[in-house]
Amino acid sequence: MSYDGKLLARARDELDRIREKNAAERTRRMTEAYALRPELRLCDDRMREQMTELVRLTLSGGEDAAAKIEALREENLALQRRRGELLAQLGHTSDWLDEIVSCEKCRDSGIYRGGVCDCLQRLYNAELTRDVGVLLKNGDESFEKFNLTLYDDRPLPGGSVSPRETMKKVLSSAKDFADSFSVGAGSLLFQGGTGLGKTFLSACIAREVAEKGFSVCYDTAASVVGSFEAQKFSRDESADARVKRMLSCDLMILDDLGTEMPTPMAESALYTLINTRLVEGRSTIISTNLSFGEMEKRYSGQVCSRIRGEYRLLPFIGRDIRQIKR
Ligand SMILES: [Zn+2]
């Protein structure tokens, strides 16, 4: 996985803050414990002195060094026991005053076995996911708030199933997708007219998936094309980082497919995004007002056949909710 330098720096800053917070908490504990049991401070001071003595004895290696080291060890064990008793009197475990780390694996260094530790990766994903903020502008998108009663409970002319029945299934599929999301969860196509809740449901999924620590990216088709163009023609660094993120995030939400300008560049950018993510087994949610027929007129067979063959279709039907609400 390649990292966006700016985002990685922000993730590391966050790790610094975690370290500072832990250090401050440790200082607070020491102040409290030393005030209640001053003997604890004496134990700690003496144990530090012992460390220095131990180093000196080991380096000097004089005749009686071994005996002195042994005596030091005995004294140290006795001090540790006494320290444990004092802490127990205060109702704490013997490691209560030790260094506090949030991640045992890397001890908050962010590096594990020469690579990025899971904890730093999670912070990095959180930075990636800030993008989703654009989508989650209301901040209250949740499946519970998806109002099925806004959809007719009678079939539309010529249909046999009511919009409400259809949307009930769509809602439950979207929920399942978010609940069980993992890398390789497959891709979804939200298809249907304007104002039927496509963006709202994508936001619900984005929120849940992001909260699980996966990286989520959101963008409209027009803006995706803009980023690819900027990357290609102006060698814009932030566009380059953005394109890489769209290609490599765990879940990409491509909103409003079909509202971008129909140019060869747009076709190529969208094909690259859709195809690369499919080949690498990454999930994408596309929402569009276009029917399959309209898609075929607009895009090459390659783009259409990939979407048709590999995406799970969730059809949004009904009347424009925004008009009904008014
Ligand atoms: Zn870690």
Descriptive notes:
With 326 residues, the protein is α/β, with parallel strands linked by helices. It has 2 domains: 13-115, no CATH class; 130-325, Rossmann fold. The protein has 13 helices and 7 strands. The protein has helices at residues 5-36, 38-60, 65-89, 118-129, 132-135, 163-179, 198-211, 221-233, 237-248, 264-279, 292-298, 301-310, 321-325, and strands at residues 111-112, 115-116, 187-192, 216-220, 251-257, 283-288, 311-316. The strands form 2 sheets. Strands 4-5-6-3-7 form a 5-stranded parallel beta sheet, sandwiched between helices. Helix 1 (5-36) crosses helix 4 and helix 8 (221-233) packs across helix 9 (237-248). It binds zinc ion. Zinc ion (ZN) binds next to helix 4.
Keywords for this structure?
single chain, 326 residues, alpha/beta, Rossmann fold, 5-stranded parallel beta sheet, 7 strands, 58% helix, elongated, binds zinc ion
Mean pLDDT: 90
Class based on secondary structure composition and strand pairing: alpha/beta
Trace the largest sheet across and list its strands: 4-5-6-3-7
Low-confidence stretches: none
First-to-last CA distance:
47 Å
Quick structural overview:
By secondary structure, this protein is α/β, with parallel strands linked by helices. The chain has helices at residues 5-36, 38-60, 65-89, 118-129, 132-135, 163-179, 198-211, 221-233, 237-248, 264-279, 292-298, 301-310, 321-325; strands spanning 111-112, 115-116, 187-192, 216-220, 251-257, 283-288, 311-316.
